[in-house]
Amino acid sequence: MAEVVDADGRGAASVDERVEPAETSFARGNGKKGANGGNNWSALLSVMKQVLRGVRPGKSVRYDTAVPSKMLLPRSALEVMEDMYYAGEMQNGLSSIGRQATPEGRMLALVRWYLHTVTAPPYLRKPYNPVLGETHVFQAQDGYMMEEQVSHHPPVTAFYGEDLSGNTKYWGQYEPHATFTGVGILIRMTGKSSIQVRENELYEMPQVGLHIRLLPPLGAEWVGKVRIRCEATGLCTAFEFKPRGILPGGSWNVVTGRIYRSLHTHGNKNGKGEEVLLQFKGSWMGQVVVTDNNYAGYPAEGDVLVDGKYKHDVNPAIGPKFTEVLNKNDEKSSYAVWRKLTLALYDGDDAASGKEKHRVEQYERKVRKWRKESGIEWGPRFFEATDGHAATGEKITMWKLRSHELSEYLRSVGGGIWPFHCPCCELYKFRPSEASCTLRSHPLLGLPEEEDEDALSTKVVPSPLRMFKKLGRGKKKQKAGLVEGSAD
């Protein structure tokens, strides 16, 4: 039987401080000159000729096709997730969902958070393809997120996050599939995202598609229909992200939707139809306005549901200012793997960025070859494969969280103060019966500060566990350095 390993055997080292340039000239939504001062159109034509050779409309194209370094966004695809976890003001963050008193209020907060997370994708810029086993852990003002690249062919990313209180948890996975549409490339995300609020509300939602137009009008836009549904409450929200038409004067970034109560629920399977509570329409890059209201607790007709004008000032080449990377010192972190390439891109050094990109790719190829020759089977650190279904109903491999491994890891990279509400120790949707957790360093035990930590190995704590009690104040400051991990 093949041995399962988590690491590649790279030597451990520390990493330097996070790269946060004050300014960057990377283009956000057009094909103008980037930080390297070169025009992207010649590079684009070369890549499109490679990708679309012999491809007809409706046929799949490779999403992970290698592109010249001058077309790269200076962030890993895992780091881009920072933009989705928290957007806009604090009151619209992920934790705002769990703070609402009623199911209707929680659905409205979820809709607002979701519309804030839909930001302008960069045009002619592609984030780095994550390497197998790459991880990214970051904290925001009201929560944290952990991601791991669990598969490289096909590329699959699994993630888990929660707010400080543990009232709102967000997890799922996504696998990009690219299709040629005749006028551009549609990237459809296969997988499932779920948000659990409190103990008994689970909101499931598919992921919206990204259309990159290669013929006029040029641009990148989110398109498709998304339905968020909660089985426990019967509340649903239907979104439609509409593509821009080909006629002059057409509108970009249009979204319409409605919040409604399905009369067919788990408790009433004979119910039919729906009760519409709220309808809205607008631009997810501008204002989304209420067009009809049939519920007293919701905003009135004509009120602004979401104001996203600030998104025009967001540069996707730079991560949000409110996030902080927790696992810089991990040799497989996005920061450590791609740091030299990111620095070269910011410096506008095409030769250095091309060389560094090639170095990372060559190293990963050598590692894959070594595993194959040695009969070693790679396995993710924080997720395990199970059978399941995507939000669209198709059968796929689902990735289940290894909660105790993540708990231990967060205590290490978070300085011992970051909370984690262990899913296996909670009743809803994780275990059918009450369970006890004997994890030695479980952060949810809530023991008095004077208790001996050695007692944790024998203490059995019934579920649900008491609230997390911080074991320390402040974060451990660690000196930064760089993990080389290359096979030059």
Question: Which helices and strands appear, and what pairs or packs with what?
Answer:
Elements: E1 3-5, H1 41-51, E2 60-61, E3 72-76, H2 81-85, H3 95-98, H4 103-117, E4 126-128, E5 135-139, E6 143-151, E7 156-163, E8 168-180, E9 184-197, E10 201-205, E11 209-213, E12 219-230, E13 235-242, E14 254-262, E15 274-283, E16 287-293, E17 304-307, E18 324-325, H5 334-347, H6 350-374, E19 376-378, E20 383-389, E21 395-401, H7 403-413, E22 436-437, E23 461-462
Parallel strand pairs: 1-19, 3-4
Antiparallel strand pairs: 2-8, 5-6, 5-18, 6-7, 7-8, 8-9, 9-10, 9-11, 10-12, 11-12, 12-13, 13-14, 14-15, 15-16, 16-17, 20-21, 22-23
Helix pairs in contact: 5-6
As a whole number of angstroms, the C-alpha radius of gyration is: 23 Å
Shape: globular
Quaternary structure classification: single chain
Kindly report the average pLDDT value: 74
Structural class: alpha+beta
SSE pattern, N- to C-terminal? EHEEHHHEEEEEEEEEEEEEEEHHEEEHEE
Which percent bin holds the helix content? 10-25%
pLDDT under 50 segments (min length 5)? 1-38, 427-488
